[in-house]
Write a structure and sequence with these properties.
Shape: globular
Number of domains: 1
CATH architecture: Sandwich
CATH topology: Jelly Rolls
Distance between the termini: 73 Å
Structural class: mainly beta
Strand content: 35-45%
CATH class: Mainly Beta
Length: 293
């Protein structure tokens, strides 16, 4: 009986360990392209670029690059790539045969990020882990050049949402943020913690709260200019509308036309009010080795 009881206890412990390991296994997430202005391209790390289209599902390890043209951008829904994507009724009977309407209805819990023109953003990590008591998510983005805006839904204390910059990293929680690769951080709601290397070589941490603009190059904190705040509010409303269930489906068209995005380097120092300008950036300092076609 003692041996039998000991065996039952051992089996119970083994089952508990297996259940715990299963519950804590990380699930790799994805992102989906839900809106594009202008042209964009992507690479999976082999320096071979392909055109980016609305509806594309992006896996971690991908770098997205937008063209240098006023009004160019890419909107991504981050997470598991959920939501519903399908054919919508064509609203323009005269549309050319190479263009097909697409409608997207996202998951209300997904985060959304906009990549502005002349920018390069790496999707490094999108994972979720079921601990048994909660679901812990980890999002890691790499802003190599340019500017991004995004909205982050409420997360539990163990979850992380980080954006790597050339000179630091920004930790974001329950926030609408606006960040440039050269260290300009704007927050219209919530807060962002920026850890960066100061001019004297020391690692400095700065908490940026709602209504503030912080420039890591100068160390100055100022109120967000009114015109920039209006732009952020307009984009925030647009991005949040993507995640509200019951809203009218957003229709897109997928254009299969072949296009070219030049890999000319741009100005790395932009931090003005509008989307960053300059030439189209090269995400890798050594060059891309190929153009989108």
């Amino acid at each position: 009986m003692k041996r039998f009881t000991t065996g039952l206890v051992a089996c119970a412990l083994a089952l508990a360990m297996v259940s715990s390991a299963s519950a804590q296994s990380a699930v790799q997430g994805k992102a989906r392209v839900v809106r594009i202005g202008g042209h964009a391209r992507f690479t999976t790390g082999n320096n071979v670029y392909q055109p980016l289209h609305v509806g594309d599902v992006i896996k971690p390890g991908t770098v997205i690059q937008t063209e240098n043209r006023e009004g160019a951008f890419v909107d991504l829904v981050l997470g598991d790539g959920g939501g519903s994507l399908g054919m919508a009724a064509a609203s323009d009977s005269a549309a050319p045969p190479t263009i097909s309407p697409i409608a997207y209805r996202p998951n209300a819990e997904q985060n959304v990020v906009r990549i502005w023109q002349n920018s390069a953003l790496g999707i490094d990590k999108l994972t979720s882990t079921d601990t048994g008591a909660d679901v812990v998510t980890e999002t890691q983005l790499d802003l190599r050049i340019g500017r991004v805006l995004g909205t982050v839904k409420k997360m539990n204390s163990a979850s992380k949402y980080e954006i790597k910059l050339p000179n630091g990293v920004a930790g974001i929680r329950g926030t609408f943020y606006d960040i440039t690769a050269d260290g300009v951080v704007r927050v219209s709601s919530g807060s962002v913690v920026l850890a960066y290397m100061a001019a004297d070589g020391s690692v400095t941490t700065k908490v940026v709260v709602a209504g503030q603009q912080f420039d890591a190059r100068t160390g100055e904190v100022t109120p967000i200019p009114e015109d920039v705040l209006k732009l952020m509010d307009a984009v925030e409303h647009m991005l949040l509308a993507l995640g509200i269930p019951g809203r009218e489906r957003t229709e897109f068209v997928r254009d299969h036309t072949i296009f070219h995005v030049s890999p000319f380097r741009g100005h790395h120092g932009h931090h003005g009010h509008g989307p960053p300008g300059g030439g189209v950036p090269d995400p890798d300092e050594a060059g891309t080795g190929g153009d989108a076609q």
